[in-house]
Design brief:
Elements (H helix, E strand, L loop, with lengths): L3 H29 L4 H6 L11 H8 L3 H32 L5 H11 L8 H10 L6 H9 L3 H13 L2 H9 L4 H12 L1 H16 L3 H6 L8 H9 L2 H25 L1 H12 L3
Length: 274
């Protein structure tokens, strides 16, 4: 008896239910963000009297949302640059060359996928403090930029799949090792790099724990910490919490949908051996 169609049907049903529930929550949050705090508290599930942008105006003017947004954007861009530079060079060395203990090095990066940063936050905190980077966005960038396990794994698999003829042709043309990497190998890995950037962007943008530990002043804090400040007194800041959640979710969601094809292509290129 072939159970494959039945399993596919069950899996599809679960995914549709989960996706529908997620979209409902997103739509509900967006809908509530256009209502006044009085309506939210007195008529939560009712129809609004009018839709207005007062919550968003208040978010930008009174809550200084733009500063939090710029902080999150700066940390995101700086972290992605560090991750791509380090992961691509490390993965190229592991993927293209044979050396002793190569499997141990790969295992080291794979183990990193199993342990969250929370397990080592105490020594990380002490190290960042001793470096003088506490309450500095650079401290957050260094901690988040050290999460190389997934990027190294995907890029290593990709570089291992590339035919050796490409490397040998570059050598015959007189290209140095760095020229071969920068002009031949790195451009070929662009689908994988796209997927890494999008996947890591979602993680970095929504990162709450590391900025909470490393950043003390509001001028350096990120959007998730801004939303936490609102939720600490939710009944008083419900309108700002709704508008802030929408502004935190929608940009990265739009970015993910735009580049979703690149994500699938990159994961397929970096995760399946030919």
């Amino acid at each position: 008896m072939n159970l494959r169609p039945k399993r596919t049907y069950v899996s599809s049903t679960i995914l549709w239910v989960y996706s529908s529930f997620t979209l409902f929550l997103l739509a509900y949050m967006t809908y509530q963000a256009f209502r006044s705090k009085k309506e939210l508290l007195s008529n939560t599930f009712g129809l609004p009297d009018t839709f207005n942008f007062a919550n968003y105006k208040k978010l930008f003017v009174e809550a200084d949302f733009l500063q939090y947004f710029l902080n999150s954007t700066w940390i995101l861009v700086a972290t992605l640059i560090i991750v791509i530079l380090l992961a691509s060079t490390v993965a190229y060395g592991i993927g293209r060359y044979q050396f002793r203990l190569k499997s141990v090095v790969l295992l080291y990066f794979l183990i990193g996928l199993m342990f969250p940063v929370q397990l080592g936050i105490v020594p990380i905190f002490l190290l960042i403090r001793d470096m003088g980077l506490l309450n500095s966005q650079w401290g957050v960038v260094l901690v988040l930029g050290s999460g190389l396990s997934l990027p190294v794994f995907l890029l290593t698999t990709f570089f291992e799949k590339l035919p050796k003829d490409l490397y040998e042709s570059a050598k015959i043309d007189g290209a140095s090792e760095w020229t071969t990497f920068l002009r031949v190998m790195f451009p070929l890995a662009s689908p994988v790099i796209y997927s890494i950037c999008i996947i890591m962007s979602v993680q970095i943008w929504n990162q709450f724990f590391v900025p909470l530990i490393m950043l003390q002043s509001d001028s350096n804090r990120t959007i998730p910490l801004m939303i936490m400040k609102f939720t600490n007194n939710l009944m008083f800041n419900l309108d700002l919490a709704m508008a802030g959640s929408v502004m935190a979710t929608v940009p990265i969601l739009i970015l993910f949908f735009i580049f979703s094809g690149k994500v699938l292509e990159g994961v397929a290129s970096g995760g399946v051996k030919g």
